[in-house]
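Researcher: Going back to the complex we discussed earlier. I've cleaned up the inputs and rechecked each line, so this should be the final set. Can you rerun the prediction on the complete assembly and write out the structure?
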Amino acid sequence: MSEILVLVEQAEGEVKKVTLELLTLARSLGTPAAVWAGPGLTPEAKARLAEYGAEKIYVAPSSDVVDYVVAPKAELLAQLVTAKSAAAVLVAATAEGKEVAGRLAVKTDSGVITDAVGVGDGFVADQSIFGGGVNVHSRVRKGTPIIAVRPNSTAPVAAAGAGTEEEVSVTLSDAAKAARVVERVKQEKGARPELTEAAIVVSGGRGVGSAENFSVIEGLADALGAAVGASRAATDAGWYPHQFQVGQTGKTVSPQLYIAAGISGAIQHRAGMQTAKTIVAINKDPEAPIFELADYGVVGDLHQVVPQLTEEINKRK
Amino acid sequence: MNIVVCVKQVPDTATERKLRSDDNTLDRDAVDGVVNELDEYAVEEALKLKEAHGGEVTVLTMGPGKATETIRKALAMGADKAVHLSDDALHGSDALSTSYAMAQVLKKIGFDLVILGSESTDARTGVLPAMLAERLGTPQLTLANKVEVEGASITVQRLADYGYDKVEATLPAVVSVVEKINEPRYPSFKGIMAAKKKPVETLAIGDASIDAAQVGLAAAWSEVVDFAPAPPRAAGTIVKDEGDGGVNAADFLASKKFI
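Model: Rerun complete. Updated structure for the full complex:
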């Protein structure tokens, strides 16, 4: 079977969960081949990729691959698509993943599909558009299908692959080395999982009432091992940093569980969370549109309900 | 500095958006068009750079005739002139076609800096800025929440999961901006009046050496096979908090094995 290239997402040498999801998905489409872009492949990371089915692990250890913005990764993948006659390329539908996909599409004269929530026979992708209101099947008509898949779309399942490592020396063009990363600034984010990757997200909105009160949301998130999100109303009010905004102009999340506290559920917010598997809403207003989406809703004051829920979870652990 | 800011007219996100049943493309006639929100940040950033460094801001849009409303808004905010790429042959263009067509226009009109929003609220692919950089062979300074220009060098803060990357390059370059990089200004009455007199050049594909075989629905690299309204979510259980709402919610979470 032909190879399905999977661009590995990693943080400080640790393979991210979304990559394990993509490897799981790739197994249903062909032979999974992981692509490690840059230095830092550890034996642990290699073992992890093999555990989830990577038959091959292509490694381009040159630091140039990560020292310039996006373009080197696209050139690396383009080179592999040709050299290995890959059947398709899967990347995580993160902001950067989609940029890599875009440049790769131009380079290989191939179609690209973004924010897929599933990929089936013939590389037909499932997408959820217009804020989750419409489900679409789409496919690539020309070249090698390049598909950016949303985190949490596939449950990761281990199934060992050979994990044969192959070093790749990539020849970067001058154009790929035009935007140089001169410094990486890591901001304190604590132990919480990343918003777009998290299996559980707890978000607060206008009903939270103040920046200080967000500690209530954080408390629940920490009890569940969840990421914290916020609605536009809360970020616009300055109660929570806007990079945590879930919605039309912010992050799109698709977790197993989404808890919305004090969020009315305007369409712009729903656009960012409607594909969550299970939705729980807590809101004072029984007419709030968020209850139309909720699998479970509590009509009440979040300042009472959320701390009680947090306490109850901690009690039952 | 010659700045080109790319703007897109998108359906108002507050309205119900639809795909057309005849060709599976976005139905742009059924809904009100507004300026893509992230592009307003791009216009503001362009204007701020012009105010600091001098030069000219040109608005570039690709879209049907009614996209002139979007051009007028950007001109009213303070841009100097506009180029409107409008041709029936462009209908149904995907991101690859759109980036090709836009790049052809940018090569024709020239630029030191191209600025645009990091994604549009309709298709939300987020690939166009990177594709433009690729096609133009210029540095990609995308997902910026801060832009600084000094002479021919440009530095941006590029948002990352862990914080941000400081990225440097030399002009010309393509910059995409994220939400909240600035506070977009409202057009003043004077600005709105002045916008009516600002030059808008309308280009057909032939005017920008755009190959008709590379654009439009027939040329698209990807296609929508079919679509359907999302099935409504099964009605959930809604309870009123009688002092035990948190406990009830915990019971629900336990029943779903989240705790």
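Model: Worth noting: Chain B is about 25% helix and 30% strand.
Researcher: Good, that matches what I expected from the previous run.
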